[in-house]
Design brief:
single chain; about 425 residues; alpha+beta; FAD/NAD(P)-binding domain; nine-stranded mixed β-sheet; binds flavin-adenine dinucleotide
């Protein structure tokens, strides 16, 4: 068959260029690398060629007839039944068909059936075989047009030009490398667009937008071709006992292969990463807010009360106050600092500086607490009643001063974290 296919190959079979463009006459964004004969040799015993489907199918049909096939057009499969044992034929498949030209129904007994009835595959449905995958990726209409694109092509011999601009998203494909072309244009039913809206006038405007020549002389050949879709779908199984699902009925995949799947995978991974960052943002806001709030409450309410107390009462109250506080706060302060650092590492430039500054402030809270207030707390805990005589050095002014320093740092840390989260 290879020789027959090559003999019937299309006039565009020598074309080499697959390009992504803003418009055919405009900017070329990407030129896809073409596969070398060695690359193809690794996956196929033959080399590739381009051939029009209208030319290929008669070659396939002739070969099938040569090999003994009975090819019946206008014949619809209405039902299909697998049976285990039949007196005459043993196990097999009974296929109910209708000749659509006469309306006559008949049955065909077969040992096996290959269901190759296209991507919508009614046979697959009759067999109860489901399909999985992303489903429809894009809806398209195609139409042929005649135009001289020599200037817009600038010497390129395109296999296809993928056009993407605000007015049109589609693919221009040559038919005869001269005047006949086909364009596949995407449309979006979810935005209320319909295949029926592609009137001759609209198709003319779309071709001109795709070619990038507003007054391009052209002729639209027909605008009544059925809409179709690019989808990714794979049958849940390729066979029952005696029926095999094949071709598009078994598997459809966009020409871009997994290229579309990867961004989807990346989108999922990014969504997951964003969810983690959001969780940590909530955590660090809670942490810094808690530290700033507690220190502020101590500064404006507890500290004035302690200052007003007699030395004896102050010492016993201070010891009581610090019991739980001293155990919990270091964890919250250190944890918030660590999360601020982590968020600074992954954030973009502006928020990164804010998260880093917040981390510094929270680290400052930890340093002031551990080197100033905590040693004073320890001294207060060790204080005996006899120490409270005239020689007693009241720690309250120093504790209060350092407490105000760490309160300011904590409030700054909380505000900077909040700003960084908002700007992220
Ligand atoms: C616009 C377009 C461009 C494409 N370009 C390319 C390309 O350049 N290269 C490439 O390799 N592929 C291309 N493809 C994909 C290619 O056409 C398909 O992969 C291929 O035709 C699948 O062959 P198939 O025999 O599995 O199904 P089909 O070609 O869809 O044939 C299925 C047949 O089953 C018939 N049928 C359905 N139901 C019944 C029933 N109940 N009883 C009897 N018969 C039934 C249908 O009428 C149809 O004739 C393109 C597809 C489209 C839509």
């Amino acid at each position: 068959m290879e020789e027959r296919v090559r003999a019937g190959r299309s006039p565009i079979s020598g074309n080499t260029d697959l390009v992504h463009v803003e418009s055919l006459a405009g900017k070329e964004r990407v030129r896809m690398p073409s596969a070398s004969p060695e690359d193809i040799g690794r996956i196929s015993p033959t080399q590739w060629t381009l051939i029009d489907q209208n030319q290929l199918e008669p070659i396939l049909r002739a070969r099938a007839v040569e090999a003994g096939a009975d090819v019946r057009f206008s014949t619809r499969v209405d039902a299909i039944e697998e049976y285990e044992e039949d007196e005459k034929d043993g196990a097999g498949v009974l296929v109910h068909v209708t000749d659509l030209s006469t309306g006559e129904s008949s049955q065909i007994h077969a040992q096996y059936v290959i269901a190759a009835d296209g991507s919508r595959s009614p046979l697959r449905e009759m067999l109860g075989i489901g399909a999985h995958g992303r489903g429809t990726i894009t809806n398209l209409v195609s139409f042929f047009f005649e135009a001289d694109l020599t200037e817009a092509l600038r010497g390129r011999r395109i296999i296809a030009a993928y056009v993407n601009n605000p007015e049109v998203r589609g693919t221009i494909i040559p038919i005869d490398n001269d005047r006949r072309w086909v364009i596949n244009v995407s449309f979006f039913p979810e935005q209320g667009q319909r295949a029926e809206d592609f009137t001759e006038e609209r198709c003319t405007a779309l071709v001109r937008a795709a070619v990038g020549v507003p007054d391009l002389p052209l002729k639209i050949e027909s605008v009544d071709m059925p809409a179709w879709d690019i989808s990714a779908r794979v049958a849940d199984t390729f066979a029952t006992r005696r029926v095999f699902v094949a071709g598009d009925a078994a598997h459809v995949m966009p020409p871009t292969g997994q290229v579309r799947a990867r961004p989807e995978g990346r989108r999922k991974a990014r969504r997951r990463a964003e969810a983690v960052v959001e969780a940590f943002s909530v955590l660090v806001l809670t942490g810094t807010g808690l530290v700033a709030g507690v220190l502020f409450a101590v500064a404006v309410s507890v500290m004035p009360a302690l200052v007003a107390m007699s030395p004896e009462r102050y010492v016993s109250t201070h010891i009581l106050l610090g019991r739980r506080y001293d155990r919990i706060m270091p964890f919250i302060v250190t944890g918030s600092t660590a999360v601020d650092v982590g968020l600074a590492i992954r954030a973009s430039d502006g928020p990164r500086v804010l998260f880093a500054a917040a981390a510094l402030c929270m680290a400052g809270v930890a340093v002031v607490s551990q080197t100033r207030n905590v040693p004073i707390n320890r001294t207060v805990k060790r204080t005996r009643p006899e120490d409270l005589g005239p020689g007693w050095r009241d720690p309250r002014p120093a504790w209060r001063g350092w407490h105000l320093v760490r309160t300011c740092l904590a409030i700054a840390g909380c505000a900077l974290t909040a700003a960084a989260v908002v700007l992220s």
